[in-house]
Specification:
The protein is an alpha+beta fold. It folds into 2 domains: 33-219 and 277-327, Collagenase (Catalytic Domain) (3-Layer(aba) Sandwich); 339-420, Immunoglobulin-like (Sandwich), CATH 2.60.40. Helices cover 21% and strands 24% of the residues. The chain has 7 helices and 14 strands. The protein has helices spanning 3-23, 65-72, 99-112, 141-150, 207-216, 279-292, 314-323; strands at 33-36, 42-45, 79-89, 118-129, 158-163, 171-173, 188-191, 339-344, 351-358, 362-369, 375-384, 387-394, 401-409, 412-420. The strands form 4 sheets. A 5-stranded mixed β-sheet has the order 4-3-5-7-6, with helices on one face. It has a 4-stranded antiparallel β-sheet with strand order 11-10-13-14, with no helix packed on it. Strands 8-9-12 form a 3-stranded antiparallel β-sheet, with no helix packed on it. Helix 3 (99-112) links the parallel strand 3 and strand 4 (118-129). Helix 2 crosses helix 6 and helix 4 packs across helix 7 (314-323). It is globular and about 55 Å long.
Length: 422
């Protein structure tokens, strides 16, 4: 039975499961993750900041994904992907990755994707020392400028940008349907210290790149949509109510068959706990690459234009791009309309972060409502600049249960379900 067909039954089971969980043990969801920083201290952060863009939903093809996968099931891809690694570092002791770490990372990718028909080889690696652009966030002018300067032939090459993302984020990617395949914005942005041998334990075995590459190839998180609906749109990954952290063997958060897929690369567990993609995920990657990245793999057709850029003053080069606004194009990756993006963690106790993205400056209101339609929190009510924004919801004083986060901006009115567990 497909996930869509199971949707209603699973939703009912999930409501029962939520009632039981809320009155029993509360999962440790007060933060997202904690990992070791370069100086040995503990750093609080976010496992993954990737979000989907519902504004491009209508453009996705083929229309019947289930039928496409059924017809192509078992016909794995057979592509070898060139990888360009752009390492931005602050100093020899902060952000610097060695040749060995990069080579080990390529091996981690090949081990993880063995059996999917996707393999990788290192096509280009360069380092760029920077005092100003070592740390930047997604959907910012800095991200656009750096990528426009460094990206190598995105239609054929997987570009990976190593830096120190703000807010302790381990990484993010953009789904293949969010922009044309040759768009400079494609690729992975990764915390440098998550590479094999880096200091970001327990996320320092290279599987942050494995995870974000999964998004790049069209995979959702295993906990997408919780216990109901189409889930992650892959039939052989069991439903999962919320992300798994650590390595909670035998965890089962939904009432449908199968324990939570904590060993799957698209969950949030420690790197040492991750070791598998399913055949259904391989089929979905086949669909996504065939549909949205048909040029990926093989020998890049464009010259290696950035080969000598590591000899330039990186900060000055990015400064020049930022000073010339027309060179920083918003085409493709900025949503066409205002978007309520990721809410993480969800479920939460008592804090969670609500993200939203505006394609242009304007007024936005973000508020929290109970299921009776009463407003219980106002998070944002005012003008904001274009780009990605985050606001913290403090659930202290609210009762355990299901709430709705609603965003209204420039004709857009969208809501998302959240769960507070105490």
């Amino acid at each position: 039975m497909s996930k869509m067909k199971l949707g209603f039954l699973v939703f009912c089971a999930a409501v029962v499961a939520l009632t039981v969980v809320a009155t029993a043990a509360t999962p440790d969801l007060s933060g997202d993750i904690v990992y070791s920083a370069a100086d040995g201290s503990n750093m609080a952060g976010t496992r993954c900041a990737t979000f989907d863009d519902p504004a491009v939903q209508a453009e996705r093809a083929p229309a019947d994904l289930d039928r496409w996968i059924e017809e192509h099931y078992g016909k794995a891809l057979n592509i070898t992907v060139p990888v360009a690694v752009h390492s931005i570092y602050e100093s020899q002791t902060n952000g610097y990755v060695t040749d060995q770490m990069v080579n080990d990372q390529i091996q981690v990718l090949n081990d993880a994707y063995a059996g999917t028909g996707i393999s990788f080889y290192l096509y280009h690696f360069a380092r760029y020392q920077s005092s100003r652009y070592f740390s930047w966030d997604m959907q910012t002018r800095e991200e656009k400028a750096v990528k426009q300067y460094l990206a190598i032939d995105p239609a054929h090459v997987l570009n990976i940008y190593l830096q120190n993302p703000t807010g302790g984020i381990l990484g993010w990617a953009y789904f293949p349907w969010m922009a044309p395949e040759d768009h400079w914005g494609h690729g992975l942005v990764i915390l440098w210290s998550t590479l094999p041998g880096g200091p970001a334990a327990p996320y320092n075995e290279g599987d942050t790149i494995t995870h974000e590459a999964g998004h790049y190839f069209g995979l959702y998180h295993t906990f997408q949509n919780g216990c109901w609906g189409a889930g992650d749109q892959v039939d052989d990954t069991p439903y999962e109510l919320w992300p798994a952290y650590g390595c909670p063997q035998g965890r089962d958060t939904c009432g449908s068959p199968g324990v939570d897929p904590i060993h799957n690369f698209m969950d949030y567990t420690d790197d040492s706990c991750m070791f598998e993609f399913t055949p259904g995920q391989s089929a979905r990657m086949d669909w996504a690459v065939t549909t949205y990245r048909p040029s990926l793999g093989g020998t890049p057709v464009k010259a290696l234009a950035v080969a000598d850029k590591s000899a330039e003053d990186f900060d000055l080069a990015i400064d020049r791009i930022l000073a010339s606004e027309p060179e920083v194009s918003d085409r493709g990756l900025m949503p066409a309309v205002a978007e309520l993006a990721d809410i993480s963690p969800n479920p939460f106790n008592p804090m969670t972060t609500v993200a939203f993205v505006l394609p242009q400056a304007g007024h936005v209101q973000v508020a929290v409502y109970d299921l009776a339609g009463r407003r219980v929190r106002t998070l944002v009510d005012g003008s904001r600049e274009a780009g990605r924004h985050e606001v913290t919801l403090d659930g202290s004083g609210l009762a355990s249960g299901i709430y709705m986060v609603r965003m209204v901006s420039e004709g857009v009115d969208v809501s998302k379900r959240i769960t507070l567990l105490k």
